[in-house]
Amino acid sequence: MSGSGRRGIPYEHSHEPLLPPFEFALRLATHLLLALALVALCLGVGMAGYHHWAHLNWVDSFFNASMILTGMGPAEPLSSDDAKIFASFYAIFSGVAFLSIVGVIMAPVVHRFLHAFHLEMSDD
Hints:
It is built from three helices and no strands. The chain has helices spanning 21-53, 58-69, 81-123. The chain has one domain: Helix Hairpins (Orthogonal Bundle), CATH 1.10.287. The protein is an all-alpha fold.
C-alpha cells in the first residue's frame, strides 16, 4: 500500500507503469475469487430464505436461489405470503448483487485498459 493511506485492493497510479502480465493475472484471479465468494454468499442467503420461508428442501432452495440470482426467474410456485415477500426482496437483492459481482470481475480489466490509455496519452 502506498503512503497515501489508501485502503482496499491497491491499483497502480496513473504515473506508474502497467503491471507485468503475471501480476495482472494474479490481480484478476483475486477478483474472480472475490466474485466467487460473493456468489456463494448470495446463494447461501437465498437458500436459507427459501428453506425457512417457503419450506423448500435444500436442493429446491438451491435451485430457486440459483434461478433468481441468474435472472431466470422463480422455479417453484410460492404459496405463503412470507415466502412471496422474501422472494421479492431476494430478487431485488439479486439484481444489485449481479451488477456488483460483474463490477468486481471487470474492475481490473477496465482499470488496465484505462491505465494503458492514459499512459499512451502521456507519451504523446
